[in-house]
Design goal:
Layout lengths: L10 H8 L24 H14 L4 H15 L4 E5 L2 E4 L14 H81 L2 E4 L2 E4 L14
Antiparallel strand pairs: 1-2, 3-4
């Protein structure tokens, strides 16, 4: 059996002093199982872990690890730890528990995370009224925007219609002036709706009157 060795927490400091690292610990070194340190938890948490383990007949490791996860979730984004000056870490934890089927993992998980679900429900209820008001405000704002868009579209259509009408009027006036000019150029004069040749023009005659 390989010699059991533990990582020395002062190894890094010695490296800064001497420039030398300790010999690496073999990855295949045999390690005896370590019990979860329930007594390292705050008193209330330690009592809770012990009670859950006793009630569900599971090792204290299971509720102990899950309690740490629940605490990390509750403190996430609010608390950081500083093991030493300049070394700051968030309280995020990533853990996994493994037990054979039928060992009450789900039951323990539900017990430990129940306070989180209660807190989440209260947080949702506390902002439901605010969310409702914001939804109403959003709906009203969207309706006003739609109405304004429709009004702008109608105004644009009216402006286009006016422009088309003015253009048509100018075109008719220009066409009439062109028609009158053409009548005189062809030897005809326009009187009302009738057209007749002008005297002395159109048929080579230089005198006489046309009726």
């Amino acid at each position: 059996m390989a010699e059991r060795r533990t990582v020395d927490p002062d190894a890094e400091e010695r490296w800064h002093e001497t420039g030398e690292w300790d010999d690496p610990v073999p990855l295949d070194a045999a390690r005896a199982p370590v019990r979860f340190p329930v007594d390292a938890l705050p008193d209330a948490m330690a009592v809770f872990v012990g009670c859950v383990a006793s009630a569900t007949q599971v090792p204290a490791d299971l509720p102990g690890v899950l309690v740490l996860e629940a605490l990390a979730a509750a403190a996430g984004g609010r608390v950081v730890v500083e093991p030493r000056a300049g070394w700051v870490e968030p309280t995020n934890l990533y853990a996994a528990v493994a037990l054979p089927p039928g060992n009450r993992k789900s039951a323990v998980f539900q017990i430990v995370t129940a306070p989180l679900r209660v807190a989440e429900k209260k947080a949702i209820e506390s902002v439901e009224a605010i969310i409702g008001e914001l939804i109403v405000e959003k709906t009203v704002a969207e309706q006003k925007a739609t109405d304004a868009k429709r009004a702008a579209s109608r105004a644009e259509d009216a402006a286009d219609a006016t422009l088309d009408s003015d253009s048509a009027g100018k075109f008719k006036k220009s066409a009439k002036q062109t028609d009158v000019g053409r009548g005189h150029a062809d030897g005809y004069s326009t009187v009302g709706d009738a057209r007749r040749p002008e005297p002395g023009r159109g048929c080579g005659r230089t005198s006489g009157a046309w009726f």
